[in-house]
Fold this sequence. Notes:
36% helix; 766 residues; Dna Ligase, domain 1; 21% strand; 8-stranded parallel β-sheet; 8-stranded mixed β-sheet; single chain; 29 helices; Glucose Oxidase, domain 1
Amino acid sequence: MSNILWLNEISKDSINQAGGKGANLGEMFNNNFPVPKAFVVTADAYKEFLQSTGIQEQINKILEQLDVNNTEQLKETSEKIQNIVLSMSIPEELKRDIAKSYTDLNVNHDLINKAPQALHLIKAGRDNPFVAVRSSATAEDLPTASFAGQQETFLNVKGSEQVLQAVHQCWASLYTSRAIFYREKNNFKHEKVLIAVVVQKMINSDKAGVMFSINPNTNEEEVLIEASYGLGDAVVSGSISPDQYIIDKKDRRIKDTKVNKKEWMLYRDSNTGRTTKRILNDEKANSQVLTDEEINKLTILALNVEDYYKKPQDMEFAIEGQNLYLIQTRPITTIEKIEEKTKEVTEENKGNEILSGIPASPGMGSGTVKIVDSMDSLSKIEQGDVLVAKMTNPDYVSAMQKASAIVTDEGGTSSHAAIVSREMGIPAIVGTKEATTKLSEGQGITVDGTKGKVYEGLTEIKKEPTFEIPTEIPETKTKIKVNLDIAEMAEKASMLKPDGIGLLRIEFMIADSKIHPMKYIKENRDEEYTQLLVREIEKVVQHFKEKPAWIRTSDIRTDEYRNLDGGESEPHESNPMMGIHGIRKGLREPRLLKAELKAIKILREKGYNNLAVMLPMVSHLEQIEKTKEILNELNMNEIKLGVMIETPAACFIIHEICKDERIKFVSIGSNDLTQFTLGVDRNNAEVQDLYNEMHPSVLRLIKKVVKTAQNYDVEASICGQAGSNENMAKYLTEIGINSISVNLDSVNKIRSLVAEIEGSEPSKQQ
């Protein structure tokens, strides 16, 4: 067991002793990359500290009581444990080892081994060096998780006592609130993660920053460099908006340069030796940091490091005079997550662009603005909010987990929090300069983290689900259908061999046209609207010719799609959720309903005889009768007609709905049925703890609908979000529902579950 290891004694396989950061530095140092001299206080040294003080069991007991999603409790627990660590003394032998190694940093390493008798003479003539003391956890900078910014770094440390104090504080930082939270969310056991500490000669940089050997926002084959004046911590922490350079990896051509205003820099004060902030004049602040020659040298270094590791790398660099240094490197851990996020799609009815910044984490997010100006205000972030702050700080990770998106005034794509947000898969935009002043508390916005743009208003975000094509498909008595709305996903959906389409929404097809349906009607362009639907619906149903496809007529609330052309004329309702939408709107505007029904008629005439009509938001028997009159007028009597069961009223008149062969099927819309039954607005975060589709009242209504429908030989199905819930699927199967229609990414899961409940045997896929 060794308390100290020098970089020449360390390789990439030394993570257990040197931590991720230390192991990578040793590997680079020993392969002639320009890494400043350093030694590592090993994980064994930290372990010895724990054993000599006996505090590990005490720490474990405190952590066992912690709910990491409780921001206040997390903060209190972190402070308590860090105080425990700092209250304990470092063993004397370890103190001596660290102090001796620190003074040896100014000496050629060969002399330490070959001429130890001369060391005191050499040291006597040299001043104590300035060092950077950096935490290096044994679960840090791994291929799957970076742990970026979770532990502390101390710059411009000078003197043995100060180094010992910094090492002690690094140990304590293993229990910052952000580090505890991050380990919990990434399933790392606290007691298994140890910490080493890198003590590295400080580079008094003129320029510094970070670089990626692949574009972390897009996964394009580009080197992305971010740089500012002075010490690099301003860039890494996200405290400023650095210059950004994008370079083509193939020919090292600079594709894009973005010079931001860098209002200040960090530097070492020559009198005090402390890290100090200096305000820059406008000329300096707005000037380009790196020359083309420096960009080229950094690009070559980035490519060489990637080539060595055979994986894309995230690196920190410093430039002092004419010398270029590699401060650290770690694998980029977000590549697969970025690929998933770039599959995300959204309705094209985004509002006006109100803000832009640097894309930090791709994807779309929409929610209510919550402005965070201190650690104390983090507790107001609720699930689905947009976190808006001056800068993204690693301490925000517990709140970031809840956010639908993050927007900041400052920072770059390489700030620690930006890295963590990419790992979490949360869209983020940094460096907007004015998010906290331009956006208002409670404002609804949509964030495009891929393009770095913020739009006015809320937008429903749809994600393309990922799935595997099963080799065996169990045959089930309960049919498993799929919900669809995006034409591009129809072919993939058909490959899963569902038993049909239990819900085909047309609203996203409408949104793609960028024209509100009522504009077509008011301008007597009914046929144009019909043909739009014919084209778009066919793109989906062509993959399901042999299986039933239930097409829901439009269900657009008056507060939705207002940004479409013509949408501004829609009435303003105080409670749109319970207002004019669904079949209510269709019967109030019969030309609108007729145009939609005609589209289905045309498709049936083209050979799609499997199509059926489903009416949303039914609450009165007369709504069905009036629709049947319109169908008769259109010579569509033969088409199967069904209704959505979304209101308690529909549940209580289910006998009347089903008798006399009025309809052929019912589909329970569990989202709305739950909110109307419980009196809980599903869009109101204040009452989400009361929203529960498994509430006994909801289950009784569902059972009543299923049993009554079957008594009249009417197919009973469900197409709400609850169908993808395993507990609900189990209940539905047990009460004998005819079919369950689920989201694309749940087809395999729910089919397997139903097969297990029914005791079905799997059959080989044809």
